[in-house]
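Section 3.1: Structural characterization of target chains.
Under the original work plan, the team committed to producing a structural model for every single-chain target entering the pipeline before any wet-lab resources were allocated. The record below documents one such target. The sequence was received from the expression subgroup and is listed exactly as submitted; it comprises 322 residues.
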Amino acid sequence: MNDRISGAPGGKMALLVKAARMYHEEGILQPEIADRLGVSQSRVSRLLKEAQRLGVVRTVVISPPGLHVELERAVREHLRLRDVVVAESASDDDAVVLSAIGAAAAAYLEETVRSHERIGISSRSASLMAVVETLSPTTGRAETVVQTLGAVGNPAMRAQATRLADRLAELTGAAAIYLPSPGVVTSGVVRDGLLSDPALAEAVDAWGELTLLLTGIGALRSSPMRTSWGSAISNDDLARLDGLHAVGDVCLNFFDADGNVVDGGLRDRVVGIGPEQLRAVPRRVGVAGGGLKDDAIRAAAIGGWIDVLITDQHTARRLLEL
């Protein structure tokens, strides 16, 4: 017998076990247990607490099918993240993964968006589109939803950027603050001029007040989906970034496999939140999955670009192997 259990006096132990069985196995409430055993209700309460302390009663949490609690814990500890949500994806196909992580991120936001939250949202992510397509109105009423990156890609994607912020603002009860600008311009002079323009000033000022950032994680490696959008940056820029060993980006802030900033002459031309402000946001939620993004997701986590990851079980297992 367990030493903790055997160390209790015999008479008290018999009473303790009897009370525990009534309460936990038979579902009898404490007042009735007290009446049956001829003791006070406060005595029953003490007996039940003692049963847990001695190990007579042990709490076991059983995860329902489709939840990946242990995998989430392993990835969270491995990458030193604040939180990890692993979605159940029927396959490792990109479209299936996208749908699964979009739904999981929507559920996460529905439960965790707080009142007066100031949310930043990137403009170039299929994952985020999947989130807002699934999201229901949140319980917390956010204050603002702010675009953190100008529009990139082909004209259809540029139009999506505004709709993305619009829809998230509507679902969280927030006011939308737009960034009416291209995401990448021809020079640093043009970028500085745009960022000082009154039309962009509200968004730029709001970046320093964000409490939550919702972002996709870009991979430098090309994907069919990325190609269909139209490239955010030129082939020459991509070649320079590749030569500097960049593996991915968050809001067009590029980084290497260790999560360190990689410039390549592009940063001064990006109209969007910069590395210091981005990593100062208290909660940074990355929504990403799929085989092409493993290295980028890992680097985003260890570099502090995100502190919450929402992904699928296939990607999560690969991250543990990297």
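The beta strands are 83-87, 118-121, 144-147, 175-177, 212-215, 218-219, 246-250, 253-256, 283-287, 308-312.
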